[in-house]
Amino acid sequence: METHQAFFRFYEELNDFLPGYRKMAEFPYPFTGNPSVKDAIESIGVPHVEVDLILADGKSVGFAYKLRNNERISVYPVFETLDISDVQRLRASPLRDPKFILDVHLGRLAKYIRLCGFDGRYEKDLTDREIVAISLSQERIILTRDRGLLKAKNITHGLWIRSGKPVEQLREVMKRLDLVNKLQPFTRCMECNGEIVSIASEEIKQQLPERTKEFYMDFRRCTLCGRIYWEGSHFERMKKFLDNVILSVSGK
Ligand SMILES: [Zn+2]
């Protein structure tokens, strides 16, 4: 069979998946037969869920598009702040009102995600297959440290988390999905992901330490696990933590 070639160029953080000589540069990709652009991207080593826009000789194309000889293919990551509204996005529904499911390595990040007010599902004993199934049925974005997980063919939304440090991971997610303006801090339980609602202090008086009762007026309770939250020192610490993260994300 005759060998053809197309020329690929990957942008932004998609370069994280490429070997050094292919980073930030155009390179030839030889092929035979009739591969789709999705097959080519995966065989180069980039999970398709990380991709949001593909241009073939400057025109936007879908994943099923068949490669042609000598074509130039530009591949862009999920990047909500880039204005590409006039070209075809690869997904019908963009990542508005994002919900998440996190892999077993991201327990601390799950808490931070909830602190920000996002729905972050996390269970220690989920298998990869279950994570994928939940992602699809509940339209949740998969957050994972395992890029193999993102190569499952049917996944539509997912992010490979680069950093091993939880705070850095939160920055990654906020930055790459442009979440800063969507935060609703302290509306979700960090422990169980339940929603938190305001309650009258009379309702919970017996459950509180004496000094807490004296000093605080505003109480909230998790609708799922019953945990009680008030604006004490833990609250202040978390607020400061979040302010710092937001500052570092929007500062760049
Ligand atoms: Zn709870």
List the helices and strands and how they pair.
Blueprint: E1 4-10, E2 27-31, H1 37-44, E3 51-56, E4 59-61, E5 72-77, E6 99-102, H2 107-115, E7 119-121, H3 128-138, E8 141-144, E9 158-160, H4 166-176, E10 196-199, H5 210-215, E11 219-222, E12 228-230, H6 233-250
Parallel strand pairs: 1-5, 6-7, 6-8, 8-9
Antiparallel strand pairs: 1-2, 3-4, 3-5, 10-11, 11-12
Helix pairs in contact: 2-4, 4-6
Zinc ion binds near residues 189, 192, 224, 225 and 227.
SS elements, strand count = 12
Computed CA radius of gyration, to the nearest angstrom:
22 Å
- Small molecules bound in the structure, each named once: zinc ion
* Spatial arrangement of strands, main beta sheet: 2-1-5-3-4
Number of alpha- plus pi-helical segments: 6
Shape, principal axes of CA atoms: elongated
- Low-pLDDT runs of 5+ residues are 80-89
Description:
- The structure is a single chain.
- By secondary structure, this protein is of the alpha/beta class.
- The protein folds into three domains: about 5-75, Ubiquitin-like (UB roll); about 100-185 and about 245-250; about 195-235, no CATH class.
- The protein is built from six helices and twelve strands.
- The chain has a five-stranded mixed sheet, with no helix packed on it. A four-stranded parallel sheet has the order 7-6-8-9, sandwiched between helices.
- A hairpin with a 2-residue loop joins strand 3 (about 50-55) and strand 4.
- It is elongated, with a radius of gyration of 22 Å.
- Zinc ion (ZN) binds near residues 189, 224 and 225.
